[in-house]
Design goal:
Layout: E1 8-12, H1 16-28, E2 32-36, H2 39-49, E3 53-57, H3 65-74, E4 83-87, H4 92-101, E5 105-108, H5 113-131
Length: about 140
């Protein structure tokens, strides 16, 4: 029996240290990770690489996470990709705005590795159920 293809996760964060932490977590969990340092790069990679999930920083220069999420969710090529938004903002209004922009989940920074791992696993199961196990 063939082993399942590892999920591809796009990690987007303008802070190199944060990006590396998220990439390492993905690799430890057996995922293939792709990374982007800004919103524009993330949009290009999302279209060309078709990741199974995106972990997206909210506060970035240029295109913030809200704008990136809206663009991804309005693009037929990327609208089904689940997005977990990561933020240091803890107010309810920001969390509501993240979900309203199209994010499927959010997680507070500093990111708890165990919590993020569970959220990624849950989102990937839902995504694969919706689009098929080969995704």
């Amino acid at each position: 029996m063939e082993s399942p293809v590892p999920a591809r996760i796009l990690v987007v964060d303008d802070e190199e240290h944060e990006r590396k932490l998220l990439e390492d977590l993905g690799k430890e969990e057996g995922y293939l990770t792709i990374s982007a340092a800004n919103g524009k790069e993330a949009l290009a990679l999302a279209v060309t690489e078709q990741p199974n999930l995106i972990v997206l920083d909210l506060m970035m220069p240029g295109m913030d996470g809200f704008e990136v999420t809206r663009w991804l969710k309005n693009n037929p090529a990327t609208h089904r990709i689940p997005i977990i938004m990561a933020t240091a903002l803890e107010d309810v209004g920001s969390h509501e705005r993240m979900l309203a922009s199209g994010a499927d989940e959010f997680i507070n920074k500093p990111v708890d590795r165990w919590e993020l791992s569970l959220r990624i696993s849950k989102m990937l199961k839902s995504f694969r159920s919706a689009v098929g196990p080969e995704a």
